[in-house]
Amino acid sequence: MAKKPGTNPKGEFAFFNVVYEDDTQRSNRRVPAELIGGLDGDEPARGFIMEQDREISEKSGRPPLGIKRLERVGAKKK
C-alpha cells in the first residue's frame, strides 16, 4: 500500500553521490542524519557507505570498489 505524501520525516537521512575509483557514480545513497555533522563533518558517511558496499559485495560475489569521492546532494560546491 502506498504511503500518503508528507508522511516521511524531513531530515531523517542525508543523501550522497558516491564516485568510485573506476569513475562510476551511484547517486542518492542514504545515510542516517545522526551519523553526520559534528567535528567529523561528513566523514562518518564514508564508513557507513563502505559497510553497505561490503554487504552488497558479499551478496553479489563481486569485490567492493574503493570510494574516490563523496558529495552531499544539495550542498554548495566550494
How would you sum up this structure in a few lines?
The chain has one helix at 43-60, and strands spanning 13-20, 25-32, 67-72. The chain has 78 residues and is of the alpha+beta class. Strands 2-1-3 form a three-stranded antiparallel sheet, covered by helices on one side.
SSE arrangement:
Elements: E1 13-20, E2 25-32, H1 43-60, E3 67-72
Main sheet?
3 strands, antiparallel
Query: How far is the N terminus from the C terminus?
Result: 42 Å
Percent of sequence in beta strands? 25-35%
SSE order = EEHE
Inertia-based shape: globular
> Number of helical runs?
1
Could you explain the architecture of this structure?
With 78 residues, the chain is α+β, with helices and mostly antiparallel strands. It has one domain. The protein has one helix at 43-60; strands at residues 13-20, 25-32, 67-72. The mean pLDDT is 87. A three-stranded antiparallel beta sheet has the order 2-1-3, covered by helices on one side.
Which labels suit this protein?
globular, 23% helix, 78 residues, 1 helix, alpha+beta
